[in-house]
Amino acid sequence: MERKTINNNQAMTEGGNSMKKLTCIGGALTGVLFSFPIMAAELRIGLQDDPDVLDPHQSRTFVGRIVYAGLCDKLVDITPELEIVPQLATDWEWSDDASQLVMDLREGVVFHDGTPFDAQAVVANIERAMTLPESRRRSELASVDTVEATGDYQVTFTLTSPDASLLAQLTDRAGMMLSPEAFEEMGANFGSNPVCSGPMRFVERVQQDRIVLEKFEDYWNAENIFIDRVTYLPIPDATVRLANLRSGDINMLERLAASDATAVQNAANLTYEEVVGLGYQALYVNIDNGPRADNPMGNDNRLRQAFSLAIDRDAINQVVFEGTQSPGNQPFPPSSPWYNADIPVPERDVEAARALMQEAGFERLEVELQVGNNPVQMQMMQVVQSMVAEAGFDVRLQATEYTTLLSEQTAGNFQLSRSDWSGRIDPDGNLHQFVTCEGGINDVRYCNPEVDALLDEARTFTEPSARKERYDAATQILQDDMPVIYLGHQSYIWAMDEAIEGFVPSPDGMIRLTGMQIAE
Amino acid sequence: MYAYIAKRLLVAIPTLLIISIFVFLLQKLLPGDPVLAMAGEERDPEVIAYLREQYRLNDPVVYQYFYWLGDVLRGDLGTSLRTNQPVTELILQKLPVTIQLAVMAMIFAVLIGIPAGILAAVHKNTALDYLANLVALSGLSIPNFWLGIMLILLVSVHLGWLPASGYYPFFVDPLRSLKTMVMPAFVLSTPLAAMLMRHTRSSMLGVLRADYIRTARAKGLSERTVVIEHGLRNGLLPIITLSALLFGDLLAGAVLTEQIFTIPGFGKLIVDAVFNRDYAVVQGVVLCTAAAFILMNLLADILYVLLNPRMRASL
């Protein structure tokens, strides 16, 4: 994964360094003299939205997951390189056919209310995630048949069908462990006072204003937690979020606007971090969802290929996103281990696009493109509109409010529709549900038995190389059929006070507090 | 007097009912399925079916309205579709915030608008009058969001005098609360101050031409006494009605101001609720706002009667 760090004070002169040393000695002396009581390290993080209900089994917002990164530990975690590593589970083993997963659990872990964490707790959690009527985790755990405690600190997942992607699901909300005592008492209302086992425990929440967590002293990894208190503040406007950072009202923010990237990189006292995420930006082409699918774009893959060829993906990245995103042509970013390197991001080729159009029997073609009514999306599609116009596509942009866009996609009321997918750790999550015949969010209603077979088969292997072979083959077919025109991959951008140390940017966009500290 | 107030309150009931029906139907006309927005990215069909059932979205719209009305009459405004929090609780949490913002903005508007209007009227067609008019015109024409962002950049980022955004409850930390509210209240007050200035000016100009003012001057009263005691008292009457009507503008303006300064008030509550298709919250907030609006107008009318003895006879 790409990673860029710019700390403006790195380029410090020798004189500056000795000055800094003096200040350090002075600071150390003052520290010794006034170190009782020690100033609590408080982190104030500006979020783009207000999270929804704080129950990992019910919640669905990205910002909610950022809060959980402080609040709730999971069975397993991922590294920035997308490797799955232990968290509450210390070790695991798959059966040969990927239909059974045995996990050994960490001992000596307690929830924030003092309830001990053990195999029974895991069973109760997974069962709740699978049966609570309000649960949004059921589809993630759909392959689980039973989960049993096969020891005090060992659980066994038995699956209805082989599903290697389950482990990746457990790195996120489906694998978060909540105190069974708390959720038995609170039921579906658990979110008003969430009790987990993460590094921070819940203090208070004022909707649309703040969520406050403080250090949990009995955390199993407490020696690596240097933050005493975290306040998450939803500040939706990117300009205001940055103004808050600059004025010192917050010391970190997520999702900096791409247009502000240069300003932050050049600002003294601020650190800039970015990483390409797991998701993608795409244009969905209505292939067979209702009567509106019956149009040249929906019927002829050559036109879709022509449309794709007429787009200069790098130019979009430069013009609209100041070069902060990653141009792309597949469901996985070029930096991902799952990317099919045989199909590189195509160069723009208007001649080839025109030739394909003529082959399909068109000189010019009118196309309606639905897009979310926010400035960045509109700008991006206006760039596309003018690019494809040169190849013969007359695009009419239809700005649509987001919830409406979702409904229109489901109902098939679109010709081309533009939306993002936030991305999943396992490749299955970026493909299976979108392009298999019975896929839950296959709004374009693309159906190709060959693709279905490959993607189903990929689930049965735990060996990455065997899986990649299937994904590569599926990606190849999708490049030809092109029900989804991939344009690029979103980057997560953080800006923070230079005093913040130890933050590790991760492609899942989370802010993990372990190891983070605020230098005095 | 009491009979008058009682009558006005009774008339408010059908008004509120009509408003609630109107808002309910308008929401149903909005495209976009709330359940899709709530179901999460994966849109699990089981979850969708459960949510529809839970929020009675499968029933005909008329039934849905009466379910809601029945709950309201029992004092229950429903729960937020997004966070499961009771709407009544949300409103009680957010109302004081917006009231503080509105009251502070009103104070700013009155403190700026009325003196400026009087000065402009007394010094008609002088440089002072032109200046006041220019400022008023700017106040009316500069958009809230632009002024807000500019003030944040100047006052918070460059000068570091005030926090850029956020909110602190007044009774927890009054000083900090006032500090966070000064900028948004000022931004919210500018169009109001401008309107108050223009109206005070024209009202005062009319009054200052009246016969009794000439008489007062002829009696040798000081110009100050003439303007403040005799002129302003009469000139203020229409301004009071205007202020009450402007209170509605204030609530509308608060929607934008709260969005810019990230103030967790009523305006932000309703905007977020509309985008999330959080029907129950939208409905509850609109009902409360309408009630507040009606109440403010009633208060203005009562104040009017108290200030103007001639009105009492007509009741």
Please tell me about this protein's structure.
The complex is a heterodimer of chains A (520) and B (315). Chain A has helices at residues 14-33, 62-71, 119-131, 166-169, 180-186, 238-246, 261-266, 296-299, 301-309, 313-321, 350-359, 375-389, 402-411, 428-435, 449-458, 464-481; strands spanning 3-7, 42-47, 76-78, 84-86, 89-94, 100-105, 144-151, 154-159, 200-206, 210-215, 229-234, 252-254, 270-276, 280-285, 326-327, 365-372, 393-400, 416-421, 484-489, 491-497, 500-501, 517-518. Chain A is of the alpha+beta class and 520 residues long. Chain A has an 8-stranded mixed β-sheet, sandwiched between helices. A 6-stranded mixed β-sheet of chain A has the order 15-19-14-18-16-17. A 4-stranded antiparallel β-sheet of chain A has the order 5-6-8-7, covered by helices on one side. The longest helix of chain A has 20 residues, at 14-33. Chain A is globular and about 70 Å long. Chain A is built from 16 helices and 22 strands. In chain A, helix 10 runs antiparallel to helix 12, helix 14 (428-435) packs antiparallel against helix 15 and helix 15 packs antiparallel against helix 16. Chain B is mainly α and 315 residues long. Chain B folds into 2 domains: 32-75, no CATH class; 91-275, MetI-like fold, CATH 1.10.3720. Chain B contains 14 helices and no strands. In chain B, helix 5 (87-122) packs across helix 8 (174-208) and helix 9 runs antiparallel to helix 10. At the A-B interface, helix 6 and helix 13 of A face helix 2, helix 3, helix 5, helix 7 and helix 12 of B.
